[in-house]
Amino acid sequence: MITKFSVLYVGQIELDNIGRDGTPADQRWYTNERLVEAFSAARDIAQTMDELGYYCLWTAEHHFQREGYEVFPNLILLSTWLATQTQRLKFGCAFNILPMWHPIRLAEDYAVADILTNGRVIFGVGRGYHTREVETFGSPMLDNAANKELFEEQMEVLLKCFNEESWSHHGKHYDVPPAVPYRGYELREITCVPRPIHRPVEIWQPIASGKTLDYIATRGIKGMVTLNGERIVDQIFHAYRNAAARGGRHLELGEDLCWGVGFYLADTEEEAIRRLGPAHDERYKWFAPFGFVRYADEQGRPWGTPGAPARVPTLREGIAQKAWLCGPPARAIEVIKEFEAKYPGLDQMMIHWAEGIPPKEFKEQLRRFAREVMPAFRR
Questions:
Q1: For 237-268, how does the pLDDT look when each residue is reduced to its tens digit (9 = 90+)?
Q2: How many Å apart are CA 272 and CA 252, to the nearest integer?
Q3: Which residue of 97, 203, 254, 266 could cross-link 271, Cys pair, CB 3.0 to 4.6 Å?
Q4: Among candidate residues 158, 186, 206, the one where a domain is terminated
């Protein structure tokens, strides 16, 4: 049963001249004074969500984006501050891009956040998708195999930091600790100080291309599936459950997963499309070149594969795919209940703040969703 409603805010500022025919994404270039507005927006949204009974605000790690779409470089630091501005809301890392971190530093930072917020920060990892970011930090992105190899070794180190009192690791990329003299003896093991106090650590990872699905499902890492058409959602949910079973984890369909959708509530679908359309188109102007149109055609083929569409989608197509819920609250409730019935293990749903919707308007949407949709799922 879906009982936890969350929001994804990737850190966009209030963009101007949005839409399919608005300013081209690569021509956006905002001043630092404008870029920092995202932090006050995050605080205001977090406080609104806290007041309304939402579960978690998820944010995304990105770097160098003078275009104004994703401007949060450190989610753990941001989340720790936001926890001081709220009472109950949790804060999720969607995601810490592990190849841009030293895994020990990331583990230490998260442990401090876990202690200071009493467990209100949810940990998440990703492999990255922006070459400008990952390659600039000296890690591979264009070489997918090298990225995967590095990521998996980093995860080994990270999990040792979280779970073991004393440990060592000697791999291709990390030699921890090095064989050096220390206070009269040869160093052989280290202990991370501190470790999180809420263990085992709940870890989330995105599922998009499916290249890491087996890895995360067999290891108990939870999966986030966002803005996907319903056919692809169904494929991923079944694949995750089956992979978990191969690893000895027997789950209900939808368990340990989060379903993410776009939304806009209005009295009619036409009104919602009119109001949301420019922001929807702005999102795909930025994200479509990265391959993030996760829809399927009538034959079930993902967009971008041979024979399937490869263009930027329209909002109407997204609504038809049930990746976007637009229109009267009753319709949103109907679709959510369909997914709830189809996936009995699913307990989390996340709604996207579409790039281009002003903070004031989005807060109004959150209030309406909390008032007219969430009560239908209170247990």
A1: 999 999 999 999 999 999 999 999 999 999 99
A2: 34
A3: 266
A4: 206
